[in-house]
Amino acid sequence: MATPGTHGRFLRADAGTGAAEAVPLAAGDLRAFVGGVGLGSLLLWRESRAGLDPLAPEAPLVFAGSPLVGTPLTTSAKFAVVAKSPLTGRISDSLSSSHFAIELKRAGMDALVVRGRAPRLSVLLVRDGRAEVRPCPELAGLPAQEAEDRIRAALGDPGVRAVACGPAGEAGVPLANLGNDGRHAGRGGLGAVLASKNLKAVAVRGTGSVPVADPDGVVAAARDLSRRSFGPATLKYRELGTVANVLVLNRLRALPSRNFQAGEFAEAERISGEALASSGKTRRASCASCTIGCEHYFTDASGAEGRMEYESLFALGPLCGVSDRDAVLRAGRLCDEVGIDTISAGGTVAFLMECRERGLLREPDLDGVDLRFGNADALLEALRRGAARRGPLGELVAMGSRRAAERIGGGSMDFAPQVKGLEIPGYHPSAMRTMALGLAVAARGADHNRSSAYEADLSEATDRGVSDPGKGLLAARAEVKAAVLDSLVLCKFLRGVFEDLPGETAALLRLVTGWDIDGPGLEEVGERVVNLRRLYNLREGMTRAEDTLPARFLDGEGGLGRESFAAMMAAYYSARGWSEDGVPAPGTLRRLGLGEFAPAGKEAIA
Amino acid sequence: MGGVTDALPLRVELFGVARSRTGRDAVVIAVPAGATLADALVRIAAALPELVGPVLGADRRSLAAGSIVSLDGKRFTRDPAEPLVAGKPLLLLPASAGG
């Protein structure tokens, strides 16, 4: 009998044949990794071999739910998508939310692993544990949301929920994301992975349910959590959304502008969340099973409506020097329609703008586009071409900033805004140095979601502007906290309502699963997940040399300083229980029960 | 707490909910020399009572769960006993910057 809250199995589906088999998941594995990013990372490891091309047919694409999905606990309708990234060559995972997560659970699986390649563009349809592959040439080139709608219409079943890639995924752009229910699994090119299987979408439908260990306890806890979610800790998200960050970070000189050349943007007021809201805010929405409702929609002068978040706003606005409110909204909508990650797309365009400014790009590289900071039309055109890999400029945008820097040369790698090939989110590393360390060590590359170290910088815990080894422990703790939430999975916007996050969330997990787990036990899960992701990257050839930042943030006035940064890194490795080469030590692996994942070969533990 | 004669002007910059609820980007209050954060919060609550609850605690001397202050743009605190930094504006901010 499966653990309450789980099915005790995942579905392994072949996009080439439509064959599917239910594979048992050991109760111990579920207890050890829970779900979401944790379970997804475990399955990625086990369902692939080292060195696999991320776009090869046999490369797995993992959709992982969690025990909490389908319960009335607020923000629990979330799932992780995990694969080897075609952008970074390292582990990539993204979380998304809403109905797809619930339908996956109802369809009878804790996770879905997709491999193989369909002979032509198709939808993988999974209904109550059975899979079939349906050709869908009519969906080619459609935005994800439109594809989802058409799939539902074609099946005559509004209950079907789908995750789809946009045209950028079909074009093999490694910045391509996945969309579902208007949400996105954004980072690392997961849309290209899906499309490499000749799949436009994965659609699921289920009619089942999963019992929980303590139904009355879950209902009572859900009521309490919902009540607390209406309090001041989430007020920012409810009233303003994440776009409120623009003016805060600008005031703290931590708002990256003009490809991270500065931490301030003189025209920040024009594109602030407050400015967006003051003219043309239309509505607020929420994911399924969420009481917070952080999604805020805005219209431009033409009346077109779109959702905007801080990371998209920063990347398509200040980072590119663009202060035209409507242009930024248009750019956000364009990214959603073509299906590309706004952070990576904006970061790469901003990088190319600086290359042009420095004379490293000329015609014919620019292909007639006046790619200057502040030129909104050029930003939009670069995004369009990048999503279609059209022309020399489109190819440069599509490849992301690291590969573009490799091609352009001229020292441009020093200011390519990336770590491990993933573009840096909207926190200036020089102004937020715990975050800088978190960005440098994060498994999927420059990452604000698996690290959350910005929380330490904006707290009493540290002086954000100083490069000191104390930040090593803070960055390590921030990763564990994120891994806990990302494996449960609960939304990070809920974190402020907990006084004892590990203890209180472990109590929720106990009610659902019946597991004997407490706060320290759940933190150990988080630590295990962080280590497994590290081990995956080591298996794929990563070395400690990748735990770094672009030279721009290390050298010169305002930089972290290489010696100081090395001391911070050493402190982080020590806090993690890793060797000075960044490899988990034998004792760490034993303590976390990760012996079967120990590095081999030249990365072997001494 | 000092009297009016030794009161010093303190500029309080408002962000996030504090700004949206008041429609203002800053307020100037008078605090005594050697004042603490609690002293400042009491005066902010008096000047902007609509912030009590969403941003300031019901006791008017503490911060609500979603808020934090920066004393000098670098250091952050929620501790009402923390001394203010002379000559520096007080930034009243959302506690989380997640995006």
Question: What does this entry show, briefly?
Answer:
The complex is a heterodimer of chains A (606) and B (99). Chain A is an alpha+beta fold and 606 residues long.
What key phrases describe this protein's structure?
heterodimer, A: 606 residues, alpha+beta, Aldehyde Ferredoxin Oxidoreductase,  A, domain 1, Aldehyde Ferredoxin Oxidoreductase Protein, subunit A, domain 2, Aldehyde Ferredoxin Oxidoreductase Protein, subunit A, domain 3, 6-stranded mixed β-sheet, 24 helices, 40% helix, B: 99 residues
Could you walk me through the main structural features you see in this protein, from its secondary elements to its overall organization?
The complex is a heterodimer of chains A (606) and B (99). Chain A is of the alpha+beta class and 606 residues long. Chain A has three domains: 9-205, Aldehyde ferredoxin oxidoreductase, N-terminal domain (Aldehyde Ferredoxin Oxidoreductase,  A, domain 1, 4-Layer Sandwich); 230-423, Aldehyde Ferredoxin Oxidoreductase Protein, subunit A, domain 2, CATH 1.10.569; 433-603, Aldehyde Ferredoxin Oxidoreductase Protein, subunit A, domain 3, CATH 1.10.599. Helices cover 40% and strands 13% of the residues of chain A. Chain A has a six-stranded mixed beta sheet with strand order 2-1-6-3-4-5. In chain A, helix 1 packs across helix 2 and helix 19 (470-488) packs across helix 21. The longest helix of chain A has 21 residues, at 519-539. Chain B has 99 residues and is of the alpha+beta class. Chain B has a single domain (4-94), classed as Roll (Ubiquitin-like (UB roll)). Chain B has helices at residues 17-22, 37-47, and strands at residues 7-14, 26-32, 67-70, 76-77, 90-94. A five-stranded mixed beta sheet of chain B has the order 2-1-5-3-4. The longest helix of chain B has 11 residues, at 37-47. The relative contact order of chain B is 0.23.
